[in-house]
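User: Hi! I'm working on a homework problem where we have to compare a predicted structure to a textbook description. Could you give me the structure for the chain below?
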Amino acid sequence: MDEKPSPDIIEVGIDIVVALGGLALMLYLKANYAHDLGAWIVSFF
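Assistant: Happy to help. Predicted structure tokens:
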């Protein structure tokens, strides 16, 4: 067992944070800007 966390674990952690951030942003846009702009942005997710 290495004392340092493996790069794979770090990358997975970053991916989770990015995914949660993207989801939060999408939900925020849906809740606050439920019009053409919000739909346009959400369409890219």
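For your comparison, note the following. The longest helix spans residues 7-32. The chain has a mean pLDDT of 80. Good luck with the assignment!
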